[in-house]
Hints:
- GO terms for molecular function: enoyl-CoA hydratase activity.
- This is enoyl-CoA hydratase.
- With 257 residues, this protein is of the alpha/beta class.
- It has helices at 30-45, 67-70, 75-81, 88-91, 108-115, 142-150, 152-161, 167-173, 185-197, 201-216, 219-233, 237-247; strands at 6-11, 14-19, 51-55, 60-62, 97-101, 104-106, 118-122, 126-128, 165-166, 178-180.
- The chain folds into two domains: 6-197, 2-enoyl-CoA Hydratase, Chain A, domain 1 (Alpha-Beta Complex), CATH 3.90.226; 200-248, Lyase 2-enoyl-coa Hydratase, Chain  A, domain 2 (Orthogonal Bundle).
- The chain is built from twelve helices and ten strands.
- Strand 2, helix 1 and strand 3 (51-55) form a beta-alpha-beta unit.
- The chain binds hexanoyl-coenzyme A (HXC).
Amino acid sequence: MTYETLLIEQHDAVTLVRLNRPQALNALNSQTLADLIAAFAAYDADPAQRCLVLTGSEKAFAAGADIKEMSEQSFADMYGSNFFAGYERVTATRKPVIAAVAGFALGGGCELAMMADFIIAADTAKFGQPEIKLAVTPGMGGSQRLVRAIGKAKAMEMCLTGRMMDAAEAERAGLVARVVPAEALVAEALKTAATIAAMAPLAVLAVKEQVEAAFEMPLSAGIRYERRLFHALFGSQDQKEGMAAFVAKRPGVWTGK
Length: 257
Ligand code: HXC
């Protein structure tokens, strides 16, 4: 399958998705959204693919939603079409997604990166929610996910002033898991993805669901939910294999059953 705004590569069990609108610094237009929806659905549906890396170019992960496309839209257009709701397909992805960010991740670009399970940043990365400078607000989850990632003070400051945060500050603030040299970004992200792809598939799904639950549930319900998923994995062949392999001092071989 080929896409107008994405380049897709498969590296064994890892899908690499590159945003590819260099003329617009990967600004997210409706074609990009349609392509992302199709690419993420294809990834989720393919049992051979176990982890996805979403990246952009050296200069920009994505410089935001496409301002030229949005500029003449009315309230009725936006509200009527539930503009941006399609991105829920990205967050509905059941298997892991890593965002590998170099250069600008602004507005919708920062928000798309935060939809991933975690972000690995190049030392060139710059994160920001500059919508205020366009007389609008974050609209793809930025006001919510940024607060949860870095707390109210920094999130509020960034959304109200539009200032950018560099990679070192983003790591200190907890927005990104790790910062790596720009030239090593994609290789590092693919290596991390390959590590995840080699884990028992049902346990990977369960970990993702557990950690997601921490954002949706009160603590007591989240702990109960975690424990039930933990219990449930004792119904899997891979749990038997994983523990037997540990005892026998050999690597586990997973069936995904
Ligand atoms: C459409 C964009 C774009 C965007 C860049 N381009 N960002 N086109 N939408 N978000 C285009 C430029 O118009 C230009 O094309 C080309 O990409 C290169 O950009 P330059 O500005 O020439 O590059 P540079 O001088 O290096 O500046 C980089 C930049 C700047 C600092 C990232 O491009 C910038 O500020 N972009 C907008 C960032 C932003 O405000 N993002 C939030 C968008 S709103 P041409 O053809 O003109 O040369 C958003 C909303 C979310 O995301 C939900 C609420 C509505």
